Every structure is written in C-alpha cells, then in structure tokens.
Amino acid sequence: MSKSTISTFELFEAIPNEEVARQYLEMRLWPNGPICPTCKSGEKVTTRKGGFYRCNYGCKDFTVRTGTIFGRSHIPLHKWVYAMYLLVTARKGISSLQLSKELGIRQGSAWFMLQRLREACGKDLPKLHGMIEIDETFVGGIERNKHEADKLRQGRGSVGKTPVLGMRERGGKTKAFPIKSTSIEEIQTAIHANVEIGSQLFTDEHAAYNDLDGLFFRQDRVNHSANQYVNGMASTNGIESVWAVLKRGLNGVYHQVSKKHLARYVDEFSFRLNEGDVKRHTLKRLDSLIDAVAGKRITYKELTA
Questions:
Q1: Angle, nearest 10°, between helix axes 107-121 and 282-291?
Q2: Which one of 22, 107, 118, 223 is separated from 303 by 20 to 30 angstroms, measured CA to CA?
Q3: Spatial separation of the C-alpha atoms in residues 40 and 271, rounded to whole Å
Q4: Nearest to residue 87, comparing CAs of 54, 55, 117?
Q5: Residues 133, 273 contacting (CB under 8 angstroms)
Q6: How much is the pTM?
Q7: Are 29 and 62 in contact (CB under 8 A)?
Q8: How many Cα atoms are found within 13 Å in the side-chain-facing hemisphere of 205?
Q9: How far is CA 78 from CA 14, 17, 109, in A?
Q10: Of 3.30.420.10, 1.10.3720.10, 3.40.50.620, 3.75.10.10, which CATH number belongs to 131-274?
Q11: Residue extents of the structural domains in the chain
C-alpha cells in the first residue's frame, strides 16, 4: 500500500458511521471549538444533544452542517465524507449513477450531492504568477453526432460549443472557467484579472493573444498551424494536458454537460488538479475539500431554475 493513500476499506474503518463523521468534520472545520455560523463567535457556545450547539448571543441553534454544503441534507455525514473521498481520488470524476450505487441513494440525490460538492470546489485562487501557459478549448456536442432536430446548421468546428479558458502556472495552480467568446477583449480581460503583472506568458498564435508582450507581461508563442509545439521555453503542452483530462471525463464519465452547469464541472477538474497531487496523502486532499465546504450553499431550486 502506498504511503500517500488510504484505501476505501481503511476509510470505512476510520469513519464507519454518522457520529464519527460528525466528530471528524467538527475537528476539521472547528479546530478551536464550535463557531456560530451567524455571529462567527465561539465565546458563548454551549453543547446540546445530537450534535447541536447553542450560541448564547441569541442566535439559532446550529450543527456542523449549518452554513455548509451539507445544510438541510438528509444524507448521513459518513456518506458525504465517502462522496468527497471519491471526488478527490477519481481522476476523471464519478457519475451520479455510480455514486448512487456506491451510497445506496437515489440518482437524483446523488446528482444534487455532486453539484453541491462542485460548488465547494469553486474557490477564489490568488492571481497566478511566474511562467503561465494559456489556452482555450471548446466543450459541447459534436454537430455531426446530434439528432437532426438538434443540429444548428451554422457551420463546423466550434458551432454550438462553449469556450473554456485555461491558465496553468508551471509548477503551481491551474485556473479554468467558461467564457462568453474567444474575442480579444474577453480573453485579455480574463488574463489581466487572473495573472500578476510581470509574469511570463506562453500562448499559441490565436489572435486574441496579440500584443500581450509589452508593458504588463512578457510573452512567447508557439505556432500550431505550422506544426510547432515547442519554441525554446514556450509551449502550451501543460494546459493542453488539462483539456485532455477534462474532455475524457466529460465525454467518458458524464457524457453530456449543459452549458448552465459547465462552470461547476470545470471547477471540479481544476480543484482535483490543484489539490489532488498523488504525492499528497489522500487525507490531505480530502481535508482540502472539507475546508472549502463552509459558506458554500446552493439549493435544488437554484440548480434547476
């Protein structure tokens, strides 16, 4: 057994039921004792029965679920922990159908559960710096594979697909998110919002990356149309490997992702890339996701509106 992982069997032994899972989550989210989610104070918190706590500043009673993605969920906490374990260890993701079988719950509940977990994955990272590879891709159905009634008949290539912009810091973090278009204004606005001034950018020859080399950034490019994939230090192979994993997951595991929910799926894959280094122990990766659950609430009504 690798020293950097924990098996499913070992996880079940360590967290076999709801009560142990509650204690585990409380220790992680409240290392210095219970904190009221309303007033953010732990000074006058007293313990009640059944995992409840009371804030004597007049706030409502609360549990470790309150104000997190677990809020108002009837699914036991040890099943939530197992779902988080699967999400951080499954390189290409896990479908709601598979999760429903693993947990013994309805597929609809598993889908809602996964969407809540993806909501937690979407955290604001600091600006990237250093050497940054930047590229865009398109996500969506292939026009020729669609039913005749669903075809847009507006040409080939990116028609009917959603553009996704990605930035990968060599030796560091990855940021990726859907964008409205691949126009110069859209892409360069995103770059300035997510990359520190003075960074070294590596891009391809797409016109949207023109004129980045100058006052704010240094830039080197590769010319893919001329079959050039490496130009000295310049390449976009790192960010393109992100697209390879993303598309294999979307096509092979999820099969179809709507434009409405695409951002959450991209957040899931980005989170796994950023926190899922196999050199990190599985429990450390799991802790990273647990740390992200506070303050991340989304209702079924919001998801399906």
A1: 90
A2: 22
A3: 27
A4: 117
A5: no
A6: 0.91
A7: no
A8: 10
A9: 10, 6, 15
A10: 3.30.420.10
A11: 8-123+279-304, 131-274
Extract the tokens encoding 194. Answer: 């997510």
Cα distance from N-terminal residue to C-terminal residue, the chain: 45
What does each of the 305 residues of the chain score in pLDDT, given as a tens digit?
Answer: 456 789 999 999 999 999 999 999 999 999 999 999 999 999 999 999 999 999 999 999 999 999 999 999 999 999 999 999 999 999 999 999 999 999 999 999 999 999 999 999 998 899 999 999 999 999 986 555 544 555 444 444 566 799 999 999 999 999 999 999 999 999 999 999 999 999 999 999 999 999 999 989 999 999 999 999 999 999 999 999 999 999 999 999 998 899 999 999 999 999 999 998 778 899 999 999 999 999 888 999 999 98
The neighbour count for residue 5, using CB atoms within 10 Å, is: 14
